[in-house]
Sequence to fold (361 residues):
Amino acid sequence: MDKDIVSVLNELDEYSPYASYLNENTLSQVTDYIDTGSLGINAICSGSLYGGIPMNRFTVFAGESQTGKSLLILKAIANAQKKGLTCIIFDSENAIDPESAANVGIQLEKVKYIPVTTIEETRNAIWKLGKSIKEKKLEGKFAIFIDSLTNMLCEMEINRLDKDSTSVDMGTKARAMKSLIQVVIKVCTNTKTTGVATAWVYDDPSALFPSLEKHIAGGKSIKYLPSVVLQLARKPMKDDKGKTVDEELAAGQKNYSGVVLRALTVKNRLIRQYLEFETYLSFSSGLDKYYGLLDLAVGMNIIQQNGATYSLGDKKLGYYKSWRKNIELWENEILPKIEELIKSEWKYSSVKNEDIELDEQ
Fold:
């Protein structure tokens, strides 16, 4: 590069301590992930069965009640601890109890728990945390969790409550939420801190037709600013006598053993969005690691379905019930093929000019 051009570009360094050439840039690179507990959800978040929640980025799990949002938060905390991260959780719902956290493997004494009421106090605490991390040179050692964004009030709402006011101003809350999200993203990026939050969704009552994407309560910034936004829905699942899951129903429990969670990426900066995957959330044992991968393998033509039986190329597998728990088969023969296709088909790709046929007429 011309010396004068380099000299001009280098003058920009004084405006940002992170200025660099793109090939040297590390702020926008994701090099590691936190396992969600489901291989399929890992894949639609990161483009790898063995990935998951991108570290040093901000991810949101949005869904209705009973869609496993808090469970995903707890699993993420447990797996973040396995990577040596110190976890901080801001709880606006009083939903994170020690017993549930311990059941998924969280080391309780190493998690800082902060109950919060307002958006602004949460924003200010996270901003102060980011400054402290920079000053003490502790980049890459923390993970922030917020459960949930939607249940927090803004300070103006608190002031109106104190005055017995019944007026409503949704714009103020949306602006406060945008400010919080912006702060979280800046802290995550500049201090290599991982951020994860939950939010509620609702249908648009004014919409003529149902939409694939639900509205996220709290403002559009919750959807547009994070790196990944995963939308969750659920349907109760009856015990199927071991065909796809193995459950023991509790005394007094109806024949519903759990829920099937449908996860949809409505925002993803890492891979293609609108990827969908169904996984199983057991009422007794949590997320099923492998559930849903059969449909993915069939859709990718890795496994061929012949009526009620299956085959892997020339290899006959038989009924799904007979081989679904064959871990060696999955790990050695099926998952590597799925992983290879995911990495080639789900990533963003550039189109070369020579690959485009131009109509010159």
